[in-house]
Amino acid sequence: MTSPRLEIDLSKIRHNARVLVNRLGKRGISVSGVTKAFLGLPDIAGELLAAGVSGLADSRIENIRTMRRAAVKAQMTLIRSPMIGQAALVVRTANTSLNTELDVISELSKAARDIGRVHGVLLMVELGDLREGIMPADLEDAVRRTLDFPNIALMGIGTNLACRCGVVPDTRNMGELSQLANAIEASFGPVLPIVSGGNSSNLDWALGTADTGRINNLRLGESILLGCEPLHRQPIEGLHTDAITLVAEVIESKIKPSQPTGAVAEAAFGTAIVSTDRGPVSQAILALGQMDTDPAGLTPPPGIGILGSSSDHLVLDTGRNRLPIGTEVGFQLNYSALIRSMASPFVTRLIQHGASPHAQPAPQPAEYAI
């Protein structure tokens, strides 16, 4: 069987999505299923829809185009601010986009008018994480001007936390978003059907707070795919944490010293090896490296440790057991390792449909035109 590969259990992904949809639904919060980590793979997108997500969301318009071409039927939202040069493609492909710049919304308006469509816009607000977002003091003017653009429908406001600076979604910042929504509608009427509080990092707040205020949507990807919350990387009760496994093959297995020999400088990726002399170790090399995944985000099986990596090699300490050549080793992944593995052209995918797996080729560069 081809390796390295991602083994993807669709039933576990559907279970995770359904559990979160149901739990949040009881709090009056819908779920947008974020598809970027798996590049809009239609098999997985279909599982999210079957689990009851209200729509699909992706940061790359190319992934949304992949799902459109595969006839995935859903409301689709571009969750990274559109590049101004892609305005026409965004309008043709996505129902809604998250925006912070009026110049971009103006181009979306022109592109939508040219093809006779109405494009939805959700304005993102800066609430402390210092990534994308309109400053709260400027939001009212942005809403006023957005409402004036032809062929643009204001769909709501939202925010994003915990991605750049790790700011935790809590009662204070989620309360501020609710207050902003109330203030906008006091001035303009009921113009904000969606108030999107954030991503998987919001789950502790959303499922634990007594009052979710105006927040009625979250954008979830990592928690569905990996079964963990991103703030502390802790498993979420009732979810599978092994829906996706990365498998690689042993290409060398030898007893070697535990310390390098000779003068040591920076290694291939800018770090020097610091190690303790433990005597000879049982070392295995896998056909997997930095070009395939984030080695720091891999969790090996019990009894195996990761010694290091380069572009194409992952070096393991296999403890008391030497692994025969051709042995396959499976790893659990964190989010960083997952998205890099999914995007690597060298990692294939094995999709499990019940008892009938089928292979998906590694992704290839997408053409631009839809």
Automatic annotation (TrEMBL):
Alanine racemase N-terminal domain span: 8-223
GO molecular-function terms, A-Z: alanine racemase activity; pyridoxal phosphate binding
Transmembrane segments: none
Cofactor(s) essential for the protein: pyridoxal 5'-phosphate
InterPro entries: Ala_racemase, Ala_racemase_N, PLP-binding_barrel
GO cellular component: cytosol
Keywords noted in UniProt: Isomerase, Pyridoxal phosphate
Species this chain originates from: Oricola thermophila
Protein name, as recorded: Alanine/ornithine racemase family PLP-dependent enzyme
